[in-house]
Amino acid sequence: xxxxxxxxxxxxxxxxxxxxxxxxxxxxxxxxxxxxxxxxxxxxxxxxxxxxxxxxxxxxxxxxxxxxxxxxxxxxxxxxxxxxxxxxxxxxxxxxxxx
Length: 99
Known about the structure:
mainly alpha; 58% helix; globular
């Protein structure tokens, strides 16, 4: 089955308005071990932007992607990794700055 989300679709509009954001976070968290090789507690902390060592967790995720997606030479370049890393790191202040 082939499925695509068209720019004007209800799904795309809901994603744009962040209506589905909580549902997406829940699904990612529940499936984090299979998808990214980290447990749901770590994923929850990452998604809440409260993980004490986000770079370490992201590296573990990249290693998992390397093992589970053998055709990908650089796991740091996978779309799924870049999306999660971009989301997590966008709100992580440098050490000593922020709360």
